Amino acid sequence: MHFTLEELGLLDAPAEQKFDNLTCLASELLDVPVAHISVADFKKNRIFYKSQYGHPDELAQSRELPMELTYCQHVPLTGAPVVVQDARLHPLLIGTPALSEGQPLAYLGIPVKAPGGRVIGGLCMMQPDERRWSRAEVSRAQKIAGCVSDLIRLETARLSSERLRREQRDFTYAISHDLQSPTNTLKMIFGELELEGACLSPDARLFIEKGLETVQRMGVQVQDVLTYSRTVDAP
């Protein structure tokens, strides 16, 4: 099933400890002062920070930046890791508004993926001075980014399960509700025929008796399905 980034809680949504734990872990393992989980919102041409560590107060409050003012835009745009030793010399960053005085020089961005493999953002780490990122450091960052993607897959699975349960509830309710009317009609018809019992043959009376028993069982079963449809969403 497909869900929007908003439905997955990745855009314009509160911070969540499960994501913040991974951001802090990235900062500690790679020894960087700034780490965040960025999500690309191409409709509004912005980067939203689902989780952040080490951001200045203003950015920590707004939790978003215009896309062209970020290094992070290049992770979803390229769909690949972006490893920057010196932003002043990196071909993706030279001449961009993101590269201004006081901006971090070293940057490491690892793709974060939605189910199906679409890159929706990145696990990104930054520091003020130059840095040559080792293979081991990139590997660690990729493992943590994989955990972020796993959290998104788990949320997708949870939402899928909830949607299926709602659909199942609505379907069973509709079916049972539709069956109520013919069941009640049959019960009324057999009841009327039963009143004419004195005019009917023994075989006919037996058929009516069996018919009433069957209709009553149907009524119980329909009520059971209705009850189930009302409780299928219960935790």
What do these coordinates show?
The protein has 235 residues and is α+β, with helices and mostly antiparallel strands. It has five helices and six strands, in the order H-E-E-H-E-H-E-E-E-H-H. It has helices at residues 17-30, 57-62, 74-78, 135-195, 202-231; strands spanning 34-41, 46-53, 64-66, 82-84, 106-113, 119-127. The protein has a six-stranded antiparallel β-sheet with strand order 3-2-1-6-5-4. Helix 1 runs antiparallel to helix 4 (135-195) and helix 4 runs antiparallel to helix 5 (202-231). It is rod-shaped and about 100 Å long. It starts with 16 loop residues before the first helix and ends with a helix.
Write a brief caption for the model.
The chain is of the alpha+beta class. The protein contains 5 helices and 6 strands, in the order H-E-E-H-E-H-E-E-E-H-H.
Topology of helices and strands:
Blueprint: H1 17-30, E1 34-41, E2 46-53, H2 57-62, E3 64-66, H3 74-78, E4 82-84, E5 106-113, E6 119-127, H4 135-195, H5 202-231
Antiparallel strand pairs: 1-2, 1-6, 2-3, 4-5, 5-6
Helix pairs in contact: 1-4, 4-5
Gyration radius over CA: 31 Å
Approximate helicity band: 40-55%
Poorly predicted sequence stretches spanning 5 or more consecutive residues? none
The assembly state of the depicted protein chains is: single chain
Q: What is the SS-derived class? A: alpha+beta
Written as H for each helix and E for each strand, in order along the chain, the element string is HEEHEHEEEHH
Main sheet overview: 6 strands, antiparallel
Write down how many β-strands occur, each being a DSSP E stretch of 2 or more residues: 6
Question: What percentage of the residues does DSSP assign to strands (E)?
Answer: 15-25%
Query: In angstroms, what separates the terminal alpha carbons?
Result: 22 Å
Strand order of the largest sheet: 3-2-1-6-5-4
Categorize the overall geometry: rod-shaped
Look at the structure and give the mean pLDDT. Answer: 87
| Total number of helices | 5
